Amino acid sequence: MAGPWTLGLLCGLLAAALAEATLSSPAVLSLGPEVIKEQLTQKLEDHNATTILQQLPLLSAVQHRSNRKIPLLRNLVNTVMKSIIWLKVTSASILQMQIQSLPYHQEMMVKIPLNMVAGLNTPLVRTIVEFHMESEAQALVRVERSNSTSRRLVLSECFCSSSNLRIRLLHRLSFVVNALAEKIRNLLVPALPELVQTELCPVIKAAFDDMYTSLLQLMTVPIPLNPGGLVFDPMFLIIEEDTVRFYLEARVLNSKGQVTTWFQSSEMTLTVPKLGNTSSSFVIRQDLVNAVIATLLPSENFVILLDYAHPDVARKLKLSLQKISKQVADRLDNTQIVKMVTRNVPYLHLIPGSSTVAQQIVMDIFATDKKPHPLFTLGIETKSEVQFYNEGDRVMINFKDISSDRIRLMNSDIGVFNTNLLKDAITMILTAELLPNQNSKLRAGICMPIVKALGCETASWSSAQEILILTPDSDF
């Protein structure tokens, strides 16, 4: 029977697993097998993995294997070895690796095919005897819990099995040379996997660790906003089949670098879609997108000399007021002023295939610039379409087609009237002043270095229920 300590430990582990399973982070970076292969292949090149293969000490390995034979066979093999001047790899390449999901939780297998040609020089023949050697290094990648909370991706095992080894002579020569080559081949069958494991596996592990470090650095690069900034940090990660998912927390900073909002786990749901035909995705929760837009578009006051800035809109407003009262409309002159305040920051609402932003505006209409009090004050609820797209590694945001969904009379010096009579004029003012002003602040876009760093020249944004999704336009 399990003791109280064991039961307590199991309960604690189960609670932690359930907590992580229901945890909703503000952003998730999903990397499919194509990204992992591309990144690891590049790191293997950086670590000169093919050079390591070309420098494999085949001759000493074969000699070592011959010394492990029983005495009678050892003498025979030593006689063979005396016929060899040199034995080495003349060319090597690493073929396209494969990533295989495993039935075990939080693990996957990386298979790295190796292609080599080895040359054997012997005085028995004037030409070099060549072997074509095909092998495969296999590495187990898993999620390791480094302490009570954090997890990291590790390459825990690397090995090379003789079952995946293929060695054949490229050219048949004389009977004596072919017999010699067959004996060397028999020694290479056990020796080559050992060489790959001792010489190449440490390089594979170093390349993997380097790749993982680079990915973490990429995720944590501060993203400048104007003003302020955005910083992501990994919370935890999981392996789901052949996909690695990094769950990130986010901090929104002000212009002084101080944290204004810290997004961690939340009761808000975050459904991460499967990658499907895409190689990666970056999913951002709606409340984080709203916080970014709020940083870019803080509350603001507008003072507009309507006749001077937008004479057509001024005429439209006067015509609309005439429907309410001709006497009130006649009080407007060419110094009339419109004051606007964006009462709350824009609120983004994401639904499948569409994005809209709602704002609350307070608008005062003054008959002239001499009047201390407005004719009336309106509370306006607006809605606009939001467009997300990429230019290089920058996310571009644009508002369009603003509408005045609700107009409420807050104060009035001209009595109560039907505010819908002003709807067209109000929409024209918002279109002429609010939209251009906000779009000018959004025009610089938001730098997202992760787009190009993952090999995506272009990427697209799409919306789902309360999430924004970045996916590459073309795969590897």
UniProtKB/TrEMBL annotation:
Keyword tags: Signal
Highest taxon, organism lineage: Eukaryota
InterPro entries noted in UniProt: Bactericidal_perm-incr_a/b_dom, Bpifb1, Lipid-bd_serum_glycop_C, Lipid-bd_serum_glycop_N
Biological process according to GO: innate immune response in mucosa; negative regulation of toll-like receptor 4 signaling pathway
Annotated SMART domains: BPI1
Coiled-coil region(s): none
Molecular function as annotated in GO: lipid binding
Signal peptide range: 1-21
GO cellular component, one term: extracellular exosome
Residues annotated as domain Lipid-binding serum glycoprotein N-terminal: 36-261
Protein name stated in the entry: BPI fold containing family B member 1
Species, as recorded: Cavia porcellus (Guinea pig)
